[in-house]
Protein backbone atom coordinates (compact mmCIF):
# COMPACT_ATOMS: atom_id res chain seq x y z
CA UNK A 1 0.00 0.00 0.00
CA UNK A 2 2.77 2.47 0.86
CA UNK A 3 4.81 2.30 -2.30
CA UNK A 4 7.94 4.45 -1.94
CA UNK A 5 8.04 5.05 -5.69
CA UNK A 6 4.50 6.47 -5.80
CA UNK A 7 5.80 10.00 -5.25
CA UNK A 8 8.24 9.60 -8.11
CA UNK A 9 5.42 8.36 -10.32
CA UNK A 10 3.35 11.42 -9.46
CA UNK A 11 6.22 13.75 -10.33
CA UNK A 12 6.97 11.87 -13.55
CA UNK A 13 3.29 11.87 -14.50
CA UNK A 14 3.02 15.59 -13.76
CA UNK A 15 6.10 16.31 -15.84
CA UNK A 16 4.71 14.33 -18.78
CA UNK A 17 1.33 16.06 -18.45
CA UNK A 18 2.87 19.56 -18.33
CA UNK A 19 5.11 18.84 -21.32
CA UNK A 20 2.10 17.49 -23.22
CA UNK A 21 0.08 20.60 -22.40
CA UNK A 22 2.97 22.83 -23.50
CA UNK A 23 3.38 21.01 -26.81
CA UNK A 24 -0.29 20.50 -27.70
CA UNK A 25 -1.72 23.68 -26.22
CA UNK A 26 -5.51 23.81 -26.04
CA UNK A 27 -5.80 20.49 -27.92
CA UNK A 28 -4.50 18.62 -24.85
CA UNK A 29 -7.33 17.26 -22.67
CA UNK A 30 -5.84 18.61 -19.42
CA UNK A 31 -5.30 22.20 -20.57
CA UNK A 32 -8.86 23.48 -20.18
CA UNK A 33 -9.51 22.03 -16.68
CA UNK A 34 -6.15 23.29 -15.40
CA UNK A 35 -6.75 26.78 -16.82
CA UNK A 36 -10.25 26.79 -15.33
CA UNK A 37 -8.81 25.83 -11.94
CA UNK A 38 -6.22 28.59 -12.27
CA UNK A 39 -8.93 31.16 -13.03
CA UNK A 40 -11.11 30.05 -10.11
CA UNK A 41 -8.09 30.11 -7.81
CA UNK A 42 -7.14 33.61 -8.96
CA UNK A 43 -10.65 34.92 -8.31
CA UNK A 44 -10.75 33.25 -4.89
CA UNK A 45 -7.31 34.66 -4.09
CA UNK A 46 -8.43 38.15 -5.05
CA UNK A 47 -11.50 37.92 -2.80
CA UNK A 48 -9.76 36.48 0.26
CA UNK A 49 -8.02 39.02 2.50
CA UNK A 50 -4.89 36.97 3.25
CA UNK A 51 -4.25 35.30 -0.11
CA UNK A 52 -3.20 37.22 -3.21
CA UNK A 53 -4.41 36.35 -6.71
CA UNK A 54 -1.07 34.91 -7.94
CA UNK A 55 -1.00 32.46 -5.03
CA UNK A 56 -4.62 31.53 -5.72
CA UNK A 57 -3.83 31.04 -9.42
CA UNK A 58 -0.94 28.68 -8.67
CA UNK A 59 -2.94 26.79 -6.05
CA UNK A 60 -5.96 26.39 -8.34
CA UNK A 61 -3.87 25.18 -11.27
CA UNK A 62 -1.90 22.82 -9.05
CA UNK A 63 -5.06 21.37 -7.52
CA UNK A 64 -6.66 20.72 -10.90
CA UNK A 65 -3.46 19.17 -12.26
CA UNK A 66 -3.34 16.89 -9.22
CA UNK A 67 -7.00 15.93 -9.73
CA UNK A 68 -6.24 15.08 -13.37
CA UNK A 69 -3.35 12.83 -12.30
CA UNK A 70 -4.99 11.24 -9.24
CA UNK A 71 -8.79 11.34 -9.60
Quick structural overview:
The chain has 71 residues and is an all-alpha fold.
Would you give an account of this structure?
The protein is mainly α and 71 residues long. Helices cover 75% and strands 0% of the residues. The mean pLDDT is 88.
Number of helices: 3
CA distance, first residue to last residue: 17 Å
The fraction of residues in strands falls at under 5%
Mean of residue pLDDT values: 88
Helix-strand pattern: HHH
Helix/sheet category: mainly alpha
SSE map:
Blueprint: H1 6-24, H2 31-47, H3 53-69
Helix pairs in contact: 2-3
Features:
mainly alpha, 3 helices, globular, 71 residues
Amino acid sequence: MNDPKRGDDLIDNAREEIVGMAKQGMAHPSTKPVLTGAAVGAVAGALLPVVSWPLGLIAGAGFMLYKRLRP
